[in-house]
Structures are given as C-alpha cells and as structure tokens.
C-alpha cells in the first residue's frame, strides 16, 4: 500500500510540474508571430514541419518562395525558428544598427562557441 501511495504522489507531482510548462509553451507568443511560416507554427505540431524540412529543405524553401513572393518567412527546425529573407530586405539589414541586429547576440542565442586564432 505504501508503494502505491508513493507512486501516486510522484505522478501527481510530475503532473503538477509538467502541465504548466506545456501550457506555457502552447500559449506563449513569439516576436516572430507576424512573419508567415511554412508548415505548422504552433508547438508541438511545429516539430512535424521541422522533420519535413530536414528531409526536404529545397522543396519547402521553393514553396515558400513561390507562396510569399520573396517576403520573409519562418521555418521551424528542431530547436529554433529560422527566418528566411528575400533580396529586397538586404538594404534594411545593411541600415540596421548593432542594437537592432547583433551578430554577437545571434551567436549567444545559438549557443555556438567561436574561437579566434591569433594572427602571426
């Protein structure tokens, strides 16, 4: 009887911890919400689109290009969203300040280590 009671308490605690996390993921908004997406844009269905992208990226990019005529679009990957832009957006990127677009912050967000070699 003690084992069942302990198991029930552990399952209840796990549910109480997991349910709010899943609910937050389902209903949180992103600063990318205004950009159209290829495939499913909500969690967890976006993982289906991410797997499709992994297996057929060229076709999905071509469909996005045709569908959105060169405007920005977002594509889900397994750990983040990738925003694809058209050539007409390059001028906006060139004009952006370091506060608006930061390579250092992008690397930090990606969790990539960058090593610099000393020049001789």
UniProtKB/TrEMBL annotation:
This is Unplaced genomic scaffold scaffold_195, whole genome shotgun sequence. It comes from the Eukaryota. It comes from Pisolithus microcarpus 441.
